[in-house]
Specification:
mainly alpha, 11 helices
Length: about 210
């Protein structure tokens, strides 16, 4: 929660500096609730990109949610479609990592509890960021711009328990870097994620294919 609060504060400040109104930033955070795609969307909006290009770009960034949802699905089979729609809205990397690291299949209660905490931390951080973060002209001077990638590095570290985990992590990183050099945008995230996930499903431990 503290780490999410920090990078949400950074986002709130950057969004205000980009010209978005406080209400717009808060509405985006509640209705979209996807930090990575919001960080991508704000500079595109500030640069005058078309709505369609913003939507398509953020959709590509968020395609990893398909993979997370597929892993979480067995744990939510007893939930109604209406509740599943609400749960789908709060799927996030941090809660997914917490739930998966604790049990396979993930415990629904653990995921939902974490998702609620992350939602509060993110929206709270964005609120603070819109109020005071906009006064920090150069957040990178204080290392605040590294808060977001630092969270993801910490999430990956909690998953590296066996040799095959390291192989998957290193392999996916190398694949993503190789693709990023050749393809523009964020396609390296999707392609590397799908490729490595498929390889894990085919050659990994059956108990760990989720």
């Amino acid at each position: 929660m503290p780490s999410v609060f920090v990078y949400a504060t950074v986002f709130g400040g950057l969004a205000v500096q980009a010209g978005l109104h406080v209400v717009e930033v808060l509405a985006m955070s509640v209705l979209v609730f996807a930090g990575a795609s919001q960080f991508v969307a704000v500079p595109m909006i500030a640069a005058g990109a078309s709505p369609l290009s913003v939507i398509l770009t953020t959709y590509v960034v968020n395609m990893r949610h398909y993979l997370m949802a597929a892993t979480l699905a067995p744990s939510f089979g007893a939930f109604s479609r209406r509740r599943l729609a609400l749960i789908a809205h709060v799927v996030n990397d941090e809660s997914f990592a917490v739930a998966v690291s604790r049990s396979r299949p993930p415990d629904a209660a653990v995921f939902l509890g974490s998702a609620a905490a992350i939602f509060v931390a993110f929206v709270g951080g964005v609120t603070v960021g819109t109020l005071i973060g906009g006064r920090v002209a150069e957040p990178e001077r204080y290392g605040l711009d590294f808060a977001f990638p630092a969270v993801f590095l910490a999430l990956v570290a909690t998953q590296l328990r066996h040799r095959r985990d390291w192989l998957v992590a290193v392999g996916s990183a190398l694949a993503a870097l190789a693709i990023a050099v050749r393809l523009p945008g964020n396609w390296h995230i999707i392609i590397a994620g799908l490729t490595v996930s498929g390889a894990g499903a085919l050659f990994g431990d059956p108990e760990d294919t989720a």
